[in-house]
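FORM 12-B: Structure-to-Sequence Request
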């Protein structure tokens, strides 16, 4: 079915390009946004695979409608399709997608945050065909993390429906990031192999100027960055587009942005402020010159209504997800920490001064990424200032007039200052207990990752202006020179093909951490199946504490949701076990062999039967808060 899925998606892109009079590479991020929302809606109904049916319908209807067209119209459509598919920008995007997919086919999960959520949740989506139910989400401690980036991971994983292939998950992640960057390939005008290859290489290297976590893992920070940058560019790119496309694209991008990560709403707010200011300060002349009667719209008031819709749609998008989380009791531990902090119930360690010093040192002195560049290692502060210098250069080269230069420069200066202040505040509060940030290197890595929407988004916007000026080729060459001098080549190489040796080592590490007892547990709970039994509480001896191993087991267990605990058989009480089960909201209990000799507390919950270690028990609720454990006899 993957051929039908890809064909239907390509049809969608061609229809968007035809209807909106845009190039195919400009249609790709819009088409991806629509695909994300289709899959997002299907996920609520555990019907992601129904997209196969939708793809077949799209292909069949398109085929029928095409042959119903008059002969001359069919010839016109075929000419348009041929022209768009053979544009150098489109060919570069297609071959780049294929090359990246093949290069990362052997990539495996290795990054800590991927094990915690991004990969575990994608694996659960793959097996369950949608979102897990109440108290059933595999990454239990990250329940309210939005699923926007997960949708295209699932789409690529679905190309191999019978087996979860980690390489396809990474291919989907990289494609989503590249999709929002592909419009920059418009600068390529000739079908020249060297020019197209250079364009693809520069596009891949571009994010590594300021953010390199994306090269190893599949978290959402870079995705937020490119979507945010695409939105800023969509605001600035008003000429030659209908008003419906102009505002509709903005709304779609913001709706995706808030579903990328919990902090997406911050960047959506910054984006809306840029949008409001852009219209207030740069669009007044357009109201006088625009033939609003010909458009059948009401000029200024129509724009205001459209801006209101652009503001409202991401609110609706985010509200739909938060409502689902509220109904299904999905909450992240960081959300709980933030709530405790707001209520004054959180103890904040007394080393705020050291944290501030680490932040200032990293912000001013430390490079954005650990590997050396061939020329310039930019610190967060130097890149912040460099963005403002670029605005001044655009003004000097008459790409910006004075008003636009002041506005864009002021927006970047203020939004950057506000974000970095928020970033510092988060390290003093929510991340205060994470002592790795007391070291400048750890802090610089944090600034690099969480600041990606500002740095990459700002660079994206300025690159758009540079390549849209009077001499776009000159602007493109300047952008290329900046990327080549400041990017992290080693990380970009590691993400694409240099990961292979590390992948083998990671698989060995998995085998060591997921030991024999864990393997038996995974077998009993039916890990890696198309259904989930629900949530399982997995208890080990108190001498066997390993939160690292637990995280690895959680990934292997998906789509089954697992909570963990450690007990001392000699001192644990019946009520302690009941409390642990209730706090975990577990429907099943599994206990490894414990070191203690006593087992009375567990025996008391089995209704007279002897409790067996290494056996899966179902939790049956009884009157007055009591529970009974019923053994599951067959191996799942």
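FORM 12-B RESPONSE
SEQUENCE OUT:
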């Amino acid at each position: 079915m993957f051929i039908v899925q890809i064909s239907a998606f390509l049809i969608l892109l061609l229809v968007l390009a035809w209807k909106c009079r845009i190039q195919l590479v400009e249609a790709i991020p819009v088409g991806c946004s629509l695909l994300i929302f289709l899959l997002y809606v299907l996920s609520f109904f555990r019907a992601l695979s129904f997209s196969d049916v939708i793809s077949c319908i799209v292909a069949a209807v398109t085929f029928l409608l095409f042959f119903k067209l008059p002969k001359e119209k069919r010839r016109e459509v075929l000419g348009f399709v041929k022209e768009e598919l053979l544009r150098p920008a489109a060919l570069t995007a297609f071959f780049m997608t294929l090359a990246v997919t093949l290069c990362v086919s052997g990539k495996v999960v290795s990054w800590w945050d991927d094990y915690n959520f991004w990969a575990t949740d994608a694996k659960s989506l793959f097996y369950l065909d949608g979102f897990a139910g109440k108290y059933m989400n595999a990454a239990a401690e990250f329940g309210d993390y939005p699923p926007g980036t997960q949708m295209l991971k699932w789409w690529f994983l679905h190309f191999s429906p019978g087996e979860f292939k980690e390489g396809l998950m990474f291919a989907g992640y990289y494609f989503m990031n590249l999709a929002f960057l592909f419009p920059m390939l418009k600068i390529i005008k000739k079908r020249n192999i060297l020019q197209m290859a250079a364009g693809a290489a520069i596009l891949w290297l571009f994010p590594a100027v300021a953010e390199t976590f994306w090269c190893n893992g599949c978290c959402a920070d870079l995705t937020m960055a490119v979507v945010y940058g695409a939105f800023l560019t969509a605001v600035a790119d008003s000429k030659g587009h209908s008003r419906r496309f102009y505002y509709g694209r903005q709304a779609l991008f913001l709706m995706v942005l808030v579903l990328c990560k919990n902090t997406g709403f911050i960047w959506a707010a910054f984006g809306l402020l840029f949008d409001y200011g852009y219209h207030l300060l740069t669009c007044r002349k357009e109201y006088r010159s625009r033939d609003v009667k010909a458009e059948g719209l009401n000029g200024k008031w129509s724009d205001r209504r459209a801006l209101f819709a652009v503001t409202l749609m991401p609110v609706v998008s985010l509200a739909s997800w938060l409502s689902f989380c509220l109904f299904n009791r999905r909450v992240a531990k960081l959300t709980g920490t933030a709530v405790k902090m707001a209520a004054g119930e959180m103890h904040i360690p007394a080393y705020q001064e050291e944290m501030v010093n680490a932040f200032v040192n990293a912000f001013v002195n430390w490079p954005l990424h650990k590997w050396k560049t061939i020329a310039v290692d930019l610190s967060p502060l130097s890149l912040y200032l460099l963005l403002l210098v670029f605005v001044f250069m655009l003004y000097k080269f008459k790409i910006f007039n004075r008003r636009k230069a002041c506005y864009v420069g002021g927006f970047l200066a203020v939004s950057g200052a506000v974000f970095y202040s928020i970033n510092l505040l988060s390290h003093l509060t929510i991340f205060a207990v994470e002592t790795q940030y007391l070291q400048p290197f750890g802090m610089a890595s944090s600034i690099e990752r969480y600041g990606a929407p500002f740095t990459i988004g700002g660079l994206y916007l300025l690159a758009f202006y540079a390549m849209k000026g009077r001499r776009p080729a000159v602007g493109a060459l300047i952008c290329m020179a900046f990327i080549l001098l400041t990017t992290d080549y080693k990380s970009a190489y590691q993400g694409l093909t240099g990961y292979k040796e590390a992948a083998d080592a990671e698989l060995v590490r998995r085998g060591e951490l997921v030991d024999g007892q864990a393997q038996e547990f995974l077998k009993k709970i039916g890990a890696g199946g198309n259904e989930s039994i629900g949530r399982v509480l997995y208890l080990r001896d108190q001498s066997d504490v390993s939160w690292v191993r637990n995280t690895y087991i959680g990934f292997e267990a998906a789509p089954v949701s697992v909570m963990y605990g450690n007990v001392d058989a000699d001192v644990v009480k019946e009520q302690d076990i009941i409390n642990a089960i209730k706090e975990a909201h577990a429907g099943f209990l599994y206990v490894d062999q414990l070191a203690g000799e006593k087992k009375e507390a567990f025996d008391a919950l089995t209704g007279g039967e002897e409790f067996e270690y290494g056996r899966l028990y179902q939790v049956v609720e009884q009157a007055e808060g009591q529970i009974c454990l019923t053994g599951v006899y067959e191996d799942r």
